[in-house]
Amino acid sequence: MNTSVMKTYGRYNVTFEKGEGSYLFDTDGRRYLDFGSGIAVNSVGHCHPHLVEALKKQAEVFWHCSNLYHIPDQQRLADRLTANSFADAVFFNNSGNEAVEMMAKIARKYQFENDHPERYRVISIQGAFHGRSLAMLAAGKQEKQLNGFGPVVDGFDQVAFGDLNEMRAAITPETAAIMFEPVQGEGGIRVMDLDYVKALRDLADKLGLLLMADEVQTGVGRTGKLFAHEWSGVKPDVMALAKGLGGGFPVGATLATAKVAAAMTPGTHGSTFGGNPLAMAVANAVLDVVLANGFMENVMTTGKKLHDGMTALSSKYPTLFDEARGIGMHLGLKCKDGIVNNDIVVKAIEKGMLIVPGGDNVIRMIPPLTITEKHVNEAMTIMEKTCDQLIAQGVGR
Question: Are residues 238 and 370 in the same domain?
Fold first, then answer.
């Protein structure tokens, strides 16, 4: 297709024109069950009435106000996020990449202000995806993303997934912080061992480092708790949010403890559009839904049904899948060696269901957190038909 849009995406052959709840509709009117939710973005489904009302109401008042002035809904959202987290302060930005990039800036500035200017390096974990800015490409260290964008930005080291000894060995007098995803999404729905996360907290405390949680994909209820690090009982010093926080409207946030946030004084960071009134109205509406009684219980209950269904798929089609993995509604199916995850994604789309490929040859199922058992059953029916067709075509034999 000839297009004036820069060709940075490998797009699937479908065009959507509207969404409703857990479904998207293409330009021919065909309905698709959306178990990708914009890559974990549409946390409460498409066109949720409460979000639509909040956005319309704000759009009729005013859209943009510079951060030179006070923005009441920023304060309200910050108060709610801090009241429901470890944090004491929030900076609002536009995306997950910006939220994580700010964490790296905070790590350096915090160490500088505490008489350790030599501490500037951040340690990440193999399989990480932290964004596509030059700095965050360096943090993720994935060759396919770094290729052609050298030289690699200095200041980032990486260790093997779950290897505490390697983490200890990687810490030097120049280390400022450890950055981790409680569940690696792009990395293949790899859940970090809770004892490992606790050990990271102990290491950071012992050595004067910051522990920074990238919860861009896992935050705001995706794993059955508001934030995924809560499963370990560990509190980070800094956290990045985005994706589900806006339910489809672009918004990001970087949260920090008071001690850490104190390093960020006027003029040290800024954003033209970050925390704009439209984004704040929608994000507050998302919290209205997510913080309601019973919401997290539904994520866990329905998520377990989905996980059980995926486990059953793995057992029924052992030549296609190795295992189901994940927690809450942050789930994946690990494909067998020789099976291409994207081939299954394409077949599922043909049958009316959207799923997302991920690292480690995984198929991700990251639906709206509002799905019901009916949607799970529908998804499993489509997946069985998809797998049956693949087997009939000789795939996985």
Answer: no
Cβ-in-10-Å burial (0-12, 13-18, 19+) of 144 comes to exposed
* Residue 155, CA distances (Å) to 107, 134, 293, 387 in order: 11, 12, 43, 44
pLDDT per residue over 95-116, tens digit each? 999 999 999 999 999 999 999 9
Cα–Cα distance, 41 to 19 (Å, whole number) = 13
What's phi and psi for 19, nearest 5 deg?
-135, 155
Which of 290, 325, 354 lies at the terminal end of a domain, its last residue?
Answer: 290
Is 0.85 surpassed by the pTM of this model? yes
Collapsing DSSP to helix, strand or coil, 81 comes out as helix
Residue type, 58: Q
Span 35-75, pLDDT tens digits: 999 999 999 999 999 999 999 999 999 999 999 999 999 99
Number of domains in the chain: 2
At 393, the pLDDT band (50, 70, 90 cuts) reads confident
Q: Which domain holds residue 319?
A: 16-34+294-392
Q: Per the domain annotation, does 162 fall within a domain?
A: yes
Q: Assess contact for 238 and 254: CB atoms under 8 A.
A: yes
Is residue 322 within 8 A of residue 314, CB to CB? The reply is yes
CATH of the domain at 339: 3.90.1150.10
Sheet holding 353-354, edge to edge: 16-20, 23-26, 31-34, 353-354
Residue 161 in 3-state DSSP?
A: coil
267 and 134 belong to one structural domain: yes
Same domain, 201 and 315: no
Which DSSP letter does residue 21 get?
A: B
Handedness of CA 6, 7, 13, 14 (dihedral sign): negative
Cα dihedral: 275, 277, 278, 280 (round 10):
50
3 falls within a domain: no
Query: Distance from CA of residue 67 to its chain's centroid?
Result: 26
- Planar angle of CA 178, 183, 189, nearest 5 degrees: 135
244, 330: one domain: no
Structure tokens at 297: 């219980």
